[in-house]
Amino acid sequence: MKKHIIAVAVAAAFAAPVAMADTTLYGLANMSLDYIDVGDGQTYKQNANGTFTNDKIVAGSSNINVQSGSSRLGVKGSEKISNDLSAVYQAEFGVQMSDGTTALTNRNQYVGLSSKSFGTFIAGRHDTPMKLAWSKYDLFGDQIGDNGNMSGHKYGTSAGFNLRTPNTVAYLTPNLAGFEATLAYVADHDAVDATAGYDNNNNQAFSGSVGYTFKKLFSVVAAYENHQQKAPAVSTKSTSEDAWMIGGGLTMAGFTVNAQYMGIENFDDVKADIWGLGAAYTFGKKHTVKGQYYNAEFDGYADGKNMFALGYDFAMSKQTTLFAAYAYGDNGQTTWGDGHEGKTPISTMSDQDSNVFSVGMKYKF
Fold this sequence. Notes:
Layout: H1 2-14, E1 22-38, E2 41-46, E3 52-58, E4 61-68, E5 72-82, E6 85-95, E7 104-115, E8 119-127, H2 129-135, H3 148-151, E9 164-172, E10 179-186, E11 205-214, E12 218-228, E13 240-252, E14 255-265, E15 271-283, E16 287-299, E17 305-315, E18 320-329, E19 354-364
Antiparallel strand pairs: 1-4, 1-5, 1-19, 2-3, 5-6, 6-7, 7-8, 8-9, 9-10, 10-11, 11-12, 12-13, 13-14, 14-15, 15-16, 16-17, 17-18, 18-19
């Protein structure tokens, strides 16, 4: 009861008419103590002809940090318009709980209409269908080893394919005997043109996914995303990049097994093939051991990249979980940064390997 009263009060701060709607206050407090060790490595510089040469050896570093794993706070709700139509909204913000800043960051924020018959239309800021599909099989979401560290790499001038885009309109189909699809158009996935004062559509994007789920036992999903990007004046390369992915998962008798693949071709004619495997086992209803491995190979880059993670979760209750995890990345592959705000700058990684140990607690409300 108190939670509902507080939620209505928070919603009223955004817009008074919403106070009468069905409103929920929710969030995630996710904190960990991490030891990050970045070993010695090599840097590479790209020559004018597109090849790479060894530059120098870079000294490594080790740090102990208190980290926030995508801690967040939001309000969401709906208002019934008719028997089969509701207005829906969400306003979610990232909360940095470890470094003293009070700034909130924008997460998924939208308003729309929803119906069990025709589906849901929304407009605002939201994860792309590609990002949602890729993260569906992530066993280390909001922890070290998050699989968004692989799909989110900005190889060359790429925008990456782990985007939460502004200027987005999206349509979600209703569940049709286990089948669902999502389509999104992004007017501009980059910053607003400060000179013109409006979105110039130089960075528009299209994203879509389709999936099937069978009784929470088996699921499969496929997604495609295209980015348009204004090319630098000196560039003669393509201003379009594409990615497609397919993934599947099986859960039975406490075991979960996932697999997925993503293919990328970006602005700098760099082609990437990323694949991953994950497995988890839950026993005693409260204990889960898990692991996942990802590999990425590229045309145009000196080396491929690998990332793997091992972890243990202890569910103290439906809302509270204690966890421990270890993650490794080679050739400059970070295991933090997406979903887990590591404080070792990614720019210092270069071609180095990293080892990260993490223990923490997350509380959902």
